[in-house]
Amino acid sequence: MFWRSVVGKLAITILLLVSFVLFILTIFLLQFFEDFHIQEAEQDMLQTATKVSLLVESHEHKQLITETTERVKDPTSRVAIVFDDGELWVSDSEDSSLAKLEEDWLKRDELSKVLTDNQQIRKQIHLPGNEREAMIVGVPIDNQNAAIYVYQSLNVIDQTKAETTKIIFLAAGIAIVLTTIFAFFLSTRITSPLIKMREAAFDLARGEFNTKVPILTHDEIGELALAFNRMGRQLKFHLNALRQEKEQLSSIVSSMADGVITLSRSGEMIVTNAPADRFIEDWYYENNLTYDAEKRKLPDELYEILQEVIEGEKEAIHELSLQGRNWVMLMTPLYDQSYVRGAVAVIRDMTEERRMDKLREDFIANVSHELRTPISMLQGYSEAIVDDIAETKEEKNELAKIIHEESLRMGRLVNELLDLARMEAGHIHLNKEPVEINPYVERILKKFKGLAQENEITITLEKQIDEPVAKFDPDRIEQVFTNLIDNAIRHTSKNGYVNVKVINYKTDFQVEIQDTGSGIPEEDLPFVFERFYKADKSRARDKKKKGTGLGLAIAKNIIDAHHGSINVNSKLNQGTAFHFRIPHQDVE
Questions:
Q1: 460-476 tens-digit pLDDT
Q2: Which end of the chain is more exposed for a tag (fewer CB within 10 A), N or C?
């Protein structure tokens, strides 16, 4: 709406103010000119009456006096002369409606004072007969009982006043028109920079910070435009700084391995990163609840922790177990000056740390357990020899043989521990060389033919050789073959079979060793490549031959050192299949 705009308000204000001033001024001017015209008319008639009175005083001839009076008076007025002998003479007038003065009029108090009291009068009277309003002045003649009366109709003054009123109203109308033009010009000139500032403000609200307001004047509006442009530059600078800080903070939070959640007092999740989202989704899944990503409400258990932090105004640490993983949550209050406005929670997955702690404990226990048996046997059998419990040479030789086997077992355990430690520390050294696959795998399988026949197990070999040569460390890979095939034979019952499948593509070297043995329980599959892992001893066919539990861990480290991968598939009482692959590098 026009009147709601600044231009309209300013223009209407100026118009109303000028109109009010003109209205008051018109009233005063009309009153002033009305009084002025009346005074002028009275003054003219008074001068005429004075001239006639002087004429009457200086001449005695009445005809001369009346003729002269007709010449000096105003044509629209009448002059009445009361001579000293009481005779009344009234002049003619061009105003036919102006009645002649009669003797009985002179008897009125206001007119008779001229003759009785020798006073001048100025009166506005109603003429008898037509009740027209007229203005009359009376002047006495000195030393004579005579008077001069001059009167005329107020219509003449009203006409003059009407003309003056027209002029005043015309001037007022012209003034209002000029004021209107001036008001619109002034308001437009004043508000034009304001409109541009408004448009620039909308541009700033839309993020267009390069918008500038032109500085057209050097007054307050120009200073306002200058301040606005400076504000835009400062706003752009600070918003860019905030954006960079936000992006930096977002990048830091997104790249964190720990989950981060920023919370309001009501429990609404304001900022989260990917690990935190996965944690929340797992929590809802664990508790059989539906997660609403739009509402982003904190779970009840975590909301209680939030209330604890807000009420106590101190950080809280809680450990949670979720989907088989261990989580530690550190929640710290966020302050708005002295008011706690929310909290930030850092959620760390401690599963690996807890697992490593357990592995360290298990490692010490397993090493102690593995060494305790051979040491006990060495100690017991050596004491039997020293104490001559074994009397015959055959008995001593048998005890010595057991001691020798246990010492070899201890040596293997120590060597494998050293190898595994070097591999896990990254100190494994590979002697890679081109290897002809066909004779290489034939030689390895030949070593196990006798062991397989001895245990009534069929061992077969399948080959698919697209490339005759592959490059790897033959000794280390043979160690992997040996470990996997030996495990397959040990865990396979009589009349079972072990199948070795070798494939050498152009891209990689693949081996699969499958048996029909006892298999590995499903719950143990994720841990078969860990140190000292041993399947249930009751499932091993050869109860006398004991492993160290390090073979698969060593095999995995060897494959990892070749930048390959190894995995296992197994079903209980149906068999196990180990598969490893080594990508080809440069083959000479």
A1: 999 999 899 999 988 88
A2: N
